[in-house]
Specification:
With 115 residues, the protein is an all-alpha fold. It has 3 helices and no strands. Keywords: Membrane, Transmembrane, Transmembrane helix. This is Integral membrane protein.
Amino acid sequence: MPDTSLPRDDLRATLEARRDLGPEYEDALVDSFLEKLDSEITARVRAEVAVHQSKAGVKPPKPDNSHIPVALGSLGIAIPLTAIAAGNAGTPGLFLAWGGIVLINLAYALGRRRN
């Protein structure tokens, strides 16, 4: 059973403050009370959701790390490709090889973004 004393106590305090301060502060007092009430409701809902998720065995989703093999593969291929391209075709071959590596990684990243 949830503890209902907090909203009741806050409401009593708000009504007392309204009596002491007068009606000109009513809007500010109501806004303050509603903010506290909203925070309390949010905390209770989060607690309930956490309880239900733990009972149901729901685990938070794992991060998607499928881009790591593509990045590591690109770097692994880039080392010998750089040596071959620079040795056979010089600087233009080097730029061509790295341009292809960059384009492959860019295409993969854009393809993931669409999904």
